[in-house]
Amino acid sequence: MWQDYDYQANLHVFSWKDDYFAVDVNSGAVHVLDRPAFLLLSALIENNGDYQQAREKLTRQWPAQVVAEIWQEMVDLHRQGALFTALDPVRVDTGSMALKALCLNAAHACNMNCSYCFAAQGDFGMKPGLMSLEVAKQAVDFLIAHSGGRRHLEIDFFGGEPLLAAGMLKDLVEYCRRLETLHGKEFTFTLTTNALLLDDEVIDWVIANNISVIMSLDGRPKVHDQYRPLKDGAGSYAAIIPRIKAMVAANPVSYYIRGTFTRQNLDFADDCRHILELGFSSLSLEPAVGPDNGYAIQAADLPRVKQEYERLAELLLEYYQSGHKVHFYHFNLDMQQGPCLAKRLTGCGAGVEYLTVTPEGNLYPCHQLVGEEGFLLGNVFQDELDSGIKQLFSTCQVHDKECIRCWARYYCGGGCLAQAYLQNGDIKKPHRVSCEMHRKRVEAAIFLDYYRRRGKICSKKQENYTEV
Ligand code: SF4
Ligand code: SF4
Questions:
Q1: Is residue 21 predicted with pLDDT exceeding 90?
Q2: What is the pLDDT of residues 241-295, one digit of tens each?
Q3: Ligand 1 centroid to 318 CA: how many Å?
Q4: Which residues line ligand 2 (CB under 6 A)?
Q5: Counting ligands in written order, which one lies closest to the CA of residue 417?
Q6: Nearest protein Cα to ligand 2, atom 2
Q7: What is the 3 state secondary structure string of the chain?
Q8: Does the CB atom of residue 215 touch ligand 1 within 6 A?
Q9: Computed from CA positions of residues 405, 406, 408, 410, in that sequence, does the dihedral angle turn out positive or negative?
Q10: Pairing of strands 465-467, 29-33
C-alpha cells in the first residue's frame, strides 16, 4: 500500500483470550479488533501492505463488502494519525544529560547465600567490604556536582546487603538532608534489602526518612528456601516474613516485594498468588537470566514462560475484578501517558543518568557491570569520567540498534544493556530470551489495561482504545 512502509516494525497484532489487539507502534494507539479486522491487518503485515493479496485471503472467509468496510475504517484511522503511522526520527541528546541517580553498593558482602545471586553472594567476585561514610559522602558530592540543573536526585542503597552498613546509611541520609537546602536539591532514597536486618529501629528510620523499600521474597516457602538460604544453608523464609509484614504495616512511602523465578519454578504464577495471599499488593517477579547455570531461563523455556505469563495475567484479572489494587511491576503500563521520551528511547539511563558506586568509590554504568574491567568509568574522588564508555552508553538509543524494528521498542527503551553485554558481548545487541519475555509482558499489560477500563475497575476513560 504505502511504499517503503515497514509493516512488521511499525504494527503489531495479537490475540489474548477472545480479544484481538493491534498496536500502532509510533502513535502508541491500541486498537481492539474484531476477528475479520484482526485477520485483515495480520494479512497486510504478512504481505508487507499488499492490500490485494490480503483482501484475496480474507474474501475466502468473509464477504467482500465486510472486508471493504474494514479497509475503509483503517484508511480513516490512518488519516487520523492512529494507524500505519511513520517512524519518528527524533533522538534524545543523552550526551549532555546530567546525572540523576546513584546506586550505592553500600556493602559488597551479604548475610545470605542465594544460589542464583548475580553478585557472587554479595561481593561481586571481588574483595568483600562495606562502604565507608567518607566514600559515601564523596559519592553524594559527586552526584550533586554532576547533576546540573536537576532538582530531584535519587540514591539507591544496594549491595550485597546494604543494611550490613546500616549505621553509615543513617549518617549519609542526614548528610544529604543538610545539603538539600544548600544546593537546591531534593533527594529520594530506595533501599533494596533481603529483609533479614529489617528490625524495628531500621523500620522507624525508613519511615522517618520516606525511604522506598524493595524486599526480596521469591514466593512459596519451598521455592524461597530452596534458592534463598542463609549462610548456614537453612531457609530464610521464616525469618523474613515477619520483618516484611512489619515493614509494610508501618506504611512506607512505597514498597515492592521483589521475587525471582528460575527455570526450576516455571509455575511462578503460584508464587505470585502466594505473595498476594500474604497481603502484599506491590510486587514484581523477575526472571533469572544469564548463561545456562541451571537457574537462568533459556530459549527452550520460552513457550512455558509465556504460558505462565498468561496464567499470571488471569490471576491478576481476578484480583482486579474483586476490587483489589494490585501493582505487578511488569504489567503496569500507563497506556495513556507512558514513560517520558528519554525513557522510551534509552531505557534505564545506565551510564548516562545513572551510575553505580562500589565500596571503594569506583563508578560503573550499572550494578550488573560492577567488576567488568572495560566498564570502569572512574572514581568519585576524580572529577572526570571515561569519555569513551560514556559515549558508548549515550549512543545506545533504540535507533542505534536492532530495536528500531521491534514493535515493543517504546515500551522497552532497548532492554537491559548489561544483559546484552553479559550474554552477547555487546551492549547494543539485546538478549533475545529477555526480549521475548518482555514482549509477552507488554501484551499482558495491554490486555489487563484494556480489561480494567472495560470493566470500569479503573475510572480513566478508554481514550487510548478504538474499536475496529
Ligand atoms: S540477598 Fe542478594 S546479594 Fe545476598 S546472596 Fe541473595 S541475591 Fe545475592
Ligand atoms: S531490547 Fe528487545 S524487546 Fe526491547 S526494544 Fe530491543 S529488541 Fe525490543
A1: yes
A2: 999 999 999 999 999 999 999 999 999 999 999 999 999 999 999 999 888 888 9
A3: 32
A4: 398, 402-403, 406, 408-409, 412, 414-415, 430, 435, 438-439
A5: 2
A6: 435
A7: CCCCCCHHHHEEEEEECCEEEEEECCCCEEEEECHHHHHHHHHHHHCCCCHHHHHHHHCCCCCHHHHHHHHHHHHHHHHCCCCCCCCCCCCCCHHHCCCCEEEEEEEECCCECCCCCCCCCCCCCCCCEECCHHHHHHHHHHHHHCCCCCCEEEEEEEECCHHHHHHHHHHHHHHHHHHHHHHCCEEEEEEEECCCCCCHHHHHHHHHCCCEEEEECCCCHHHHHHHCEECCCCECHHHHHHHHHHHHHCCCCCEEEEEEECCCCCCCHHHHHHHHHCCCCEEEEEECCCCCCCCCCCHHHHHHHHHHHHHHHHHHHHHHHCCCCCEEHHHCCCCCCCCCHHHHHHCCCECCCEEEECCCCEEECCHHHCCCHHHCCEECCCCCCCHHHHHHHHCCCHHHCHHHHCCCHHHHCCCCHHHHHHHHCCCCCCCHHHHHHHHHHHHHHHHHHHHHHHCCCCCCCCCCEEEC
A8: no
A9: negative
A10: parallel
Task: State pLDDT tens for residues 86-102.
Answer: 887 766 666 667 999 99
- Provide mean pLDDT across the span 39-58: 93
Ligand number nearest CA of 112 is 1
pTM for the whole structure: 0.91
In ligand 2, which atom is closest to the CA atom of 406? 8
Decide: 122 in ligand 1 pocket, CB within 6 A: yes
107 lines ligand 1 (CB under 6 A): no
Nearest CA to ligand 2 atom 3: 435
Q: How far is the CA of 403 from the centre of ligand 2 (A)?
A: 5
> What is the residue with the minimal CA distance to atom 3 of ligand 1?
160
What is the predicted pLDDT for the residue at 455? 54
Q: Can the peptide bond before residue 129 be classed as cis, meaning omega within 30 degrees of 0?
A: no
* Segment 312-338, tens digit of pLDDT: 999 999 999 898 889 998 887 755 555
Place of cell 505462565: 308
Report whether pLDDT(197) > 80: yes
